[in-house]
Amino acid sequence: MERMDTRQAAQRFADTWQRGWTQHDVAAITALYRDDAVHTSMPFRPPHRGRQAVADYIAWSFTGESDPRVSFAAPIVDGGRAAIEFRVHAVDNGRPVTLAGCVFAEFDADGLAVRTRDYWHTVDGHQ
User: Is the dihedral of CA 69, 78, 44, 38 positive or negative?
Assistant: First the structure.
């Protein structure tokens, strides 16, 4: 089988995350990850190891969030890796919040995420 183009994998990752986050569709998002994927959210948190741990983290992160408007920028690709900026405007536990961040993803030959890490920051209100 031929290796999936990283640019295609990264764009699929961004598009699926954008739709999945907007709809809180954990299954669609976690289908992007290999079974043994490792995801780190923020540099000092322990990593989430395996697709189920990633799914649990994503489900937890959607808790209390409503009405998300999500946008992902075009991926910047180098070799088998991509960097993708994102922005989210939502209501979190009753208050408006804006989240801005970047995810770094490494893909396997099938286009599944093997390693991902993200950095993000939130502000109250919509910016």
Answer: positive
Residue 30 dihedral angles phi and psi, to the nearest 5°: -70, -20
CA atoms of 111 and 70, how far apart (whole Å): 22
What residues does each domain of the chain span? 6-124
Residue reference for tokens 């209100």: 125
CA distance 28 to 86: 18
Contacts of 44 (CB under 8 A, 6+ apart): none
Task: Determine if the pTM surpasses 0.90.
Answer: yes
Amino acid at site 27: A
Could you tell me which CATH class the domain 6-124 is placed in?
Answer: alpha beta
**Cα dist from 104 to 27, 71, 126, whole Å:** 20, 16, 25
pLDDT, tens digit (0-9, with 9 covering 90-100), for 61-91: 999 999 999 999 999 999 999 999 999 999 9
